[in-house]
Amino acid sequence: NAGVTQTPKFQVLKTGQSMTLQCAQDMNHEYMSWYRQDPGMGLRLIHYSVGAGITDQGEVPNGYNVSRSTTEDFPLRLLSAAPSQTSVYFCASSYSHRANQPQHFGDGTRLSIL
Amino acid sequence: GQQVMQIPQYQHVQEGEDFTTYCNSSTTLSNIQWYKQRPGGHPVFLIQLVKSGEVKKQKRLTFQFGEAKKNSSLHITATQTTDVGTYFCAGPTSGGSYIPTFGRGTSLIVHP
Question: Do residues A94 and A102 make contact, with C-beta atoms less than 8 angstroms apart?
């Protein structure tokens, strides 16, 4: 059972480039989310999805887009990368947002914007 | 901004000493979760507390949920080097949903 799989693990971009961070889960989880982690700032929610076809903004959504066409996949798109988006990105999933459920995290993507 | 405040941000201890991290909210929480993140790793779920005044133990770790359900603590007895990492609490966002908001975490450094 793979759990939550994120790709790539590392990426270096130039300012202005675009890219997509991939996230897939094989647990048939309804809820998926993206966080960014910066030193001293904890985990900040970027976007989340409570099911296929449904997405919503979190605390820090600017500069990022998401879509949820299937239950399994929840990609995060950086439209025009900026140095402020240098961070570690974690994808997480849980069985449902309607009840207290533990979050399962992927291994993270370490992204540097030059 | 963050719904849950976590202190301290860092804690250095000698191996064998105890450690406590605190999580506080201005609003009543329906539940609180605790996670551990090892250096270079990803957060891993430890436990969830739901009831007022609840206390749960996992070996040397003791988790408490306050009577008013506005605060929680994680206490580690006799720390070991394997306890090194960042401990996060997470509470539901305001408005009644169960979408978690994480505290900024407490980084535990254990000196052998």
Answer: yes
Which 3-state string (H, E, C) describes chain B?
A: CCCEEEECCEEEEECCCCEEEEEEECCCCCCEEEEEECCCCCCEEEEEECCCCCEEEECCEEEEECCCCCEEEEEECCCCHHHCEEEEEEEECCCCCCCEEECCCEEEEEEC
Which phi and psi angles does B82 have, rounded to 5°?
A: -70, -10
Cβ atoms of residues B6 and B88 within 8 Å: yes
How far does the CA of residue B29 sit from the closest CA of chain A (Å)?
Answer: 11
- B:20-59 residues touching chain A, CB 8 A cutoff: 30-31, 33, 35, 41-45, 48, 50
Q: Could you tell me the CA-to-CA distances from B60 to A38, B34, B47, B48 in Å, in that order?
A: 29, 15, 14, 16
B6 touches chain A (CB under 8 A): yes
Nearest Cα residue to A34 out of A65, A8, A13:
A65
Q: Tokens in use for B109? A: 């450094």
Are the beta carbons of B45 and A108 separated by less than 8 Å?
Answer: no
With 90 as the cut, is the pLDDT of residue B111 above it? yes
Interchain proximity A101–B98, CB inside 8 Å: yes
Which position has the token pair 């994808």? A91
Q: Over the stretch A19-62, which tens digit does the pLDDT of each residue have? A: 999 999 999 999 999 999 998 888 999 999 999 999 999 999 99
